[in-house]
Design a protein that fits this description.
Pfam families: PBP_like_2. Keywords: Signal. This is Substrate-binding domain-containing protein. The strands form two sheets. Strands 1, 2, 3, 4, 5, 8, 9 and 10 form an eight-stranded mixed β-sheet that branches. Strands 6-7 form a two-stranded parallel sheet. The two termini are 33 Å apart. It is built from 13 helices and ten strands. By secondary structure, it is an alpha/beta fold. 41% of the residues lie in helices and 21% in strands.
Amino acid sequence: MKYSVLTIVLLAFTGVTQAADCKAVFGDGKQEFILATGSPGELGLLEELADAFNKDHNSRMCWVKAGSGKSLSLLKAGNVDMAMVHAPAAEKQAVKDGWAAQRTLIGSNEFYLVGPAADKGKVKGAESVAQAYRNIADNQALFYTRADNSGTHKKELSIWQSADIKPAGDWYQPTNDFMRASLKKANANGGYFMTDSSTWVATASQLPDLTILFKGDPVLINTYHALRGADLNDQGMALSKAFIEFVASRQGQQIITEYGVKEHGQAMYDNAVVASKYEG
C-alpha cells in the first residue's frame, strides 16, 4: 500500500489506487500504517493511542481525517489500512462482503442534541429523541446537518426516519463539515445540532450560546469499532491487526477510559465493556 515517488507517478497514469493524504503522522518508526477516522483524531485520543503502540512496534501512524462513511470508502478502495468508525450497519456489511475484517468494539460515547437556551424547537422535555426531532420540524427551528455520510449524519437520518419525517426547507441546513466546525456554526447562528458527547466536552467552553437540550435516549449511544483491510500480507494491514489488538487490550482500554480526565475533569469516552451493553 505504500509507494515510492516513481510508483505514485506511474499510478497516476494507470488509475491504480494510492494512499490518502495524512492529516497528521504520529511517531517516527520505520513501518507505517494508515488509519482513517474523524473525531477520535480531532480530539487527540488517536495520537495518545498511537504513541503508546508505536513505542513497541517501530511504527508510525498516518491519520487520514474522514467521517465514518468516507473512512469506510477509503478502506474499501485500499487507500487506508484500517478505520475507526461508528456506522454499525455499514461496518457489518463490509465484513460480510469480505473487504474488511477484525471488526472490534473499542468504546463509545453518546449524542447530545444542543441548541439555544430559548429553545424555539421545544426540544427540552421531549419524551424521546424522535419526539425532539418532530418538535424541531414542527416549529421549523434552524437545524444543522453534517450532510456528509458520516456516522453522525447516518444516525441523524435514522432518527428522522423513526420520527416519520423527511426534513427539508430553509430551516434544515447542511454544513458539509466536521463536528467542531458544525457546532461553531450552530453557536454563531442560533441553530440546533446533534453532537457527540466527546466533542461537546472538549469544545463547550467555546460555545457560549449553545446548551444541552436533550440526551439520555438509548438510541443516542454511539459505539465505535475498529476494522482493517483483509490482506494481512500487506505490511500496513498487518500493523493494523496489531493496533486493533492493542486498542482492545487492557492498556488500550485504560487509555480510552481515562482520556480527557486530566484536561477536562471528565472522561470523554466509555470503554468497550460499557459499550457492549448497547451492541445490537
